[in-house]
Amino acid sequence: MRQVKVFLCDCDGTLTDGGMYYLENGQQFKKFSVADGIGFELLKAAGIKTGILTGEITPIVEHRAKKLKLDYLYQGCSPQGKLEAARAICALEKISLEQVAYVGDDVNDLPLLEQVGLKACVQNAQESLKTLPGVVILKHKGGEGAVRELINSILEHSIELKT
Fold first, then answer.
1. pTM of the model as a whole
2. How does DSSP assign 32-47, residue by residue?
3. What is the full per-residue pLDDT of the chain (163 aa) written as tens digits?
4. Phi and psi dihedrals of 84, rounded to 5?
5. Residue from 124, 117, 122, 109 nearest 78 by CA
6. Burial (CB count <10 Å: 0-12, 13-18, 19+), residue 156
């Protein structure tokens, strides 16, 4: 875990509970965990780059990424597109996929999860993710602090390795 240079995650079902909420006028909204948001701040303070890779294209996610001052946001990604986006980030950062942590919840995350150095899924992820060799199955569900759980593990492990 000490080698993590970039932390990436899915949005719907990972940073949120995966629900699609609509107002009567058709406007969509999502619920995000404040704990996850603080986790991104902690990663940035530790010098780890951060980002969201998502299949959806919504202003809500763009606003959340800006609020958190994430380094990367890729929207409209196909399952293979998430892997391509991560490779592009790695090229920009001059690192390998082995130095990337990624957390997801569904089958569209599989191509990327199979390639990264630290792979994790939320507690309520699809079974196909939970059976990946080496995957960390988090105790929390998507949107309920699962991302922060992984961030805490990364940072605590890094601190232990430095002492």
1. 0.94
2. --HHHHHHHHHHHHTT
3. 458 999 999 999 999 999 989 999 999 899 999 999 999 999 999 999 999 999 999 999 999 999 999 999 999 999 899 999 999 999 999 999 999 999 999 999 999 999 999 999 999 999 999 999 999 999 999 999 999 999 999 999 865 444 3
4. -65, -40
5. 109
6. exposed
